[in-house]
Design goal:
The complex is a heterodimer of chains A (247) and B (337).
Chain A: E1 13-23, E2 26-37, E3 41-45, H1 52-59, E4 67-72, E5 75-76, H2 82-87, E6 90-92, H3 105-115, H4 120-133, H5 149-162, E7 167-171, H6 179-189, H7 192-196, E8 199-203, H8 207-213, E9 216-221, E10 224-229, H9 231-235, H10 238-245
Helix pairs in contact in A: 3-4, 3-5, 4-5
Chain B: H1 4-34, H2 37-63, H3 70-85, H4 88-94, H5 100-104, H6 109-128, H7 136-156, H8 158-161, H9 176-195, H10 197-207, H11 209-214, H12 219-245, H13 255-268, H14 273-300, H15 310-325
Helix pairs in contact in B: 1-2, 1-9, 2-9, 2-10, 2-12, 2-13, 2-14, 3-6, 3-7, 3-12, 6-12, 9-10, 10-12, 13-14, 14-15
Classes of the chains: A alpha/beta (247), B mainly alpha (337).
Chain lengths: 247, 337
Amino acid sequence: MISPADGHTPLTALVVQGITMDFVGLRALENVNLTLRQGEILGLIGPNGSGKTTMINVITGLLRPTAGRIQADGADITGKPPHKIAQTGVARTFQKVKLFRELTVFENVKVAAVSVGMPNRRAKEQAWVALEELGIEAWSGRIAGTLPYGHERKVEVARALAMNPKFILLDEPAAGMDEEESAALLQILTPIPEKKNLGMLIVDHDMNLIMRLCNRLHVLNYGKTIGEGTPEEVRRIPEVVEAYLGS
Amino acid sequence: MKDKPASTATRSHIITLLILLLPLIIIAAVTKLIGNVLFERVVITLFINLILVLGLQAFMGNSGILSFAHIGFMGIGAYASVLFSMAPQMKKLALPDLPLWLGHLQLPFLPSILIGAIIAALIAAVVSFPLMRLSDASAVITSFALLVVIHTILVHWKTVTNGPQTLFGVDRYTHLETSMCWAFIFIALAYWFKESSIGLQLRASRDEREAASTIGVNIILVRWQGFILSAFMAGLGGGLWAHFITSFSPKAFWLKETFVILSMLVIGGPNSVSGAVVGALLVTGAFEGLRGLENQINIAQILPVQLIGLTEIVLSLTMIVILIKRPLGIMGGREFR
């Protein structure tokens, strides 16, 4: 098992140190350490309720951790408001898609570039690039609320990419997609981290997708880390097999 | 590929603006042709109401937060502009307790209404900042509380408002052309704001608050900017109205006006500038039509009793039906194009 908290915090990484998150009567995360390096794809997996989404919410500032520290690219982002964290280069998508329903697809993506501080012209260009990346530029004029479900997910990924992030956290990007759609999405996502030199964290239940896509895995169970490493390494950890893979 | 969509977008914005301006030009031209003073008064009121609706749209439509305070800022703009435009001799009669420097001061119409609008915007900037973190019901209730505060101050600050009594002696500067030009400017201003980067971020925060914050939108800041612009527009509408009606009391900036402006926006559809224009035109049309009908019924004595309040009741019922059938108003958040 690789330990990320070895004293060296790499500068071009998202580093989560000793994060604990308590809700009333429930410890959702307990002393979790996690490092997401630029250029890699890290899978965050675990059974339902193991704290995966909570971790993304803590990193993106929607939840304030009870204890621990988070650094993005060397800057301390612990307890900062969500928009500040976004502006330091951390993007995300949601398990339940949250598009701006009354805006067009183009506006949905452009507003992300605008909000992280790009001037109008650059934001427009950036939005087109992101739409093309996902292959959805043909929908640019449609009102987002009228899109079919599978399309919504792609718009959300494009929106996150338009921020030109250093780190992107995808919460079940293939949820609700059929096999064909999720394979197509996989093809789009795989080359992005290397091409854009960004760190991609993926939460998903589809083990097939996770094993093929990720360079490294981080396994949570009841809010605690029970395994970490390459897919092959993780597969051999008895606790992981018992808690997750075996079932 | 990358340039085309942008230029078609610009063209469609211009088309939208032209479609919105056209009916106003026609109405103004017809009014000139008819030359009836009463009809002209109705049309000027329509244009001023439109300005107020557009001001409300700039905040409420883009942020999704209902604000009751709007007409309060109209009142501030009305009283503040009059303090600068009124002739010193008149001030001695109407507002004898004014501080000397203000009592002797007289500015032309345009700077007066602009100063009035700026004062409304500054007050909005100071008082609204802490309110901008509120959403939903608590935001609505605090905005109503703000209206009550402003109203109470207008009623009791006798030195500058003449208290609850009517303030008289205001010169008439707002004519048909003036109000039409300002309506044009405000349509363009509301439209520009909606499409601006602040307006875009505000609309994103309206649709999905959490998602907006995680893409980098500083929600409190963009709401605040929208609220200040909205108060500026309301203040200017107030200044125009004061110099049209020429004598008024704080009662004018209270629930009745609030309800009229709000119903125009809700019926037309708050999420688009087209909705604001359609709402103002339709409600004014319906209002005047119903009032005429009410008068006719009473004069002809068709009913055994006097008919009172038909206009308000029909308007309220319309609003209820619209809210049930089309929660986003007649325009449903879309623009003409």
